[in-house]
Fold this protein.
Amino acid sequence: MTREERDYMTAVAQLGCIACRLNGFSGVPAEVHHQRSGTGAGRRASHFDTMPLCPGHHRFYPDAIHVNARLFVKRYGSEAELVRRTRDEVQRYRQTFVGYTGV
């Protein structure tokens, strides 16, 4: 993993769970979920194709992405949509950093 990838994934996790935010709860600690759609045959998504999910929405709740992906998508949107939203949010988040130059 490159430094750029590591920094990006740190920023993703710092956003807090995207599903919880869509449910009206902010500040819920998150871990990074790699997009599964469009991958396969042992290939993992890029570290930039990620979204922040709390452990519950990642692996444990009835609507968790690894428990019931169809229900997760129905409630929160497709992985591709959430990854795009996450990228936009990371960009806005980074713009709040003192000394940010857009690089």
